[in-house]
Predict the 3D structure of the following.
Amino acid sequence: MTPAPRSVTVALAQMAMGPDKGRNIEQAARAVGDAARRGAQVVCLPELFATPYFCQVEDPALFELAETVPGPTTEAMAAAARQHGVTVIAPVFEKRAAGIYHNSLVVLGPGGELLGQYRKMHIPDDPLFYEKYYFAPGDLGFVTVATPHAAVGPLICWDQWYPEAARLVALQGAQIICYPTAIGWHPKEKAEFGAAQLEAWRTIQRAHAIANGVFVVAVNRVGHEGPAPGLDFWGHSFVADPFGTVLAEAGEGVETLVVPLDLAKLEDVRHNWPFLRDRRIDAYGGLTSRFLGGPKR
C-alpha cells in the first residue's frame, strides 16, 4: 500500500477579473502554470473567477454567463491541470437546467479528471451580494474530496462563516478546507468598518482551522468591480495552520501564494487538542432547529 502523503504544497491564485470571460480563464490557466512551476500540487482559484462579480445587480441577461459542467471553463481548467500535473479547484457559474443555476466548483485531478463537485450551500442576499436571485442552494451536501496529495473539503465564500460546514467536511476527513471567495468592502463603509470586517473574516476562518484541527486556505479576488458604488474586493488570501497561525497572506493586488503544508502537523495538534474526541454528539440535536427559543429554567 502506498503511504499517505505527509506534505502538500498549495497555491492560492488571487486574481482581478475583467469583463472578458475568455481573458479571465486564460489568466487563471497562466496562474495554474506559474504555481506548478513554483512547486504547487494543489491550486485554488477564486469564486466565480471566469466573470466579474455580477451579483451586484439583478439582471436576467446575466444568466447567459452560466455554463454546464462539464463546459468551457471546466474543460479549460482540466486542460491546465493535465498540462501541469496539478490538482485544480475551479469555481464555476453552473447552468444545471433552464431556470436552475448554482454557484459551484469542481476539483480536477492532475490528469484533468473530475474528482469531485460542490454546490454552494449558504446563499447570501445582501446589498450588492444578490446571490439568491441567481443561485439555487446546493444539493450535493458537504463533501470531502480525495486528491493525490491531500483530502480537501471545498466550500465557497458565504459558507466560510458557518462552523457547521467546516465541521462536517472535517468529520469526513478533510485535511485542508479550501474557500474560494469573492468578498470586499462597500466603498462608503470602508473607512469606518473596513478594518473590522477584514479582521472578522480572517478570524472566523482561523477559528475553523483551530476547532477542527485542519489547514484553511482562503483565496479571494481583488480590484474594484461593478457600477457605482461597486465593491472593493479586499484580497488578503491566506493560509492558516491547525493552530490558527497564518502561514502566508497576500496583499490587495494580483498575487499567487505558494505554501508548503506539513500534514503531519494535523495529527500532532489533535493529540494535544482532541476536540473531535470530546464532542458531545449525544447533545447536539438542537443544531437542526432554526432557533430554540429562550433560556430553559
In short: The CA atoms of residues 55 and 130 lie 5 Å apart. DSSP finds six helices and 17 strands in the chain.
